[in-house]
Amino acid sequence: MSFIQLINIHKIYGKAPNAFEALKGVNLQIDEGEFVALMGPSGSGKSTMANILGCLDSPSSGIYDFCGVNVSLLNLKQKALLRRHYIGFIFQGFNLLPRTTALENVELPLLYRQVPKKERMRLSMEALEMVGLEKWYNHSSNELSGGQQQRVAIARAIASKPLFLLADEPTGNLDTKRSIEIMEILSNLNKESKITILMVTHESEMAKYAKREIVFLDGNVKSDTKEKL
């Protein structure tokens, strides 16, 4: 059974005669432990695809199967629970709380899951250690560099030990040196922790860190390097 399977996914915004079809019958399979880069020009459908994979949006038709669960049949509350327990998110803009310590930012999703304080701190410190920021745990986010803030964001995403990590332009606000640091962290997480990662990026140099590259164009898959493996 595939980790993720998409069958004939369509996404339509608006109503006729002004309807816009963002996804046009996408069929896609992602196996457990893969590191996939999702690429494509603006308007290609890659962001819509990522939102559906992260349960932030729903397809107009088709089947989205996540670990044997037909996500297409879930209601909003059920999707929220799936996101909270199985999916970690990394965003381009970091989305950290200002004037709040690195540790407190990492703890936040665990707090929502009502994880006991002692266990919450253990998991959060473990995650900060994995991204090399354990000595910065007590620094507020506004005291950290952009690269450090993104590392805190990664720690926050992995603290709850998700099955699936969705990274949306994780290096978009960083210079080349910091971008490489972030990509090495993601690559190591994939290799060592076996986390399945899907990364949306427009940077071909960053996409090379992934094991597989999927390019979207006009609402569907244009190319997929898995076919060459």
TrEMBL record:
Domain ABC transporter, first and last residues per copy: 4-229
Gene Ontology terms: cellular component: membrane protein complex
Transmembrane segments annotated in the record for this chain: none
Pfam family, one: ABC_tran
CDD domains: ABC_MJ0796_LolCDE_FtsE
Gene Ontology molecular functions: ATP binding; ATP hydrolysis activity; transmembrane transporter activity
Alphabetical UniProt keywords: ATP-binding, Nucleotide-binding, Transport
Family membership noted in the UniProt record: Belongs to the ABC transporter superfamily. Macrolide exporter (TC 3.A.1.122) family.
Protein name as it appears in the record: Macrolide ABC transporter ATP-binding protein
Organism in which the protein naturally occurs: Helicobacter valdiviensis
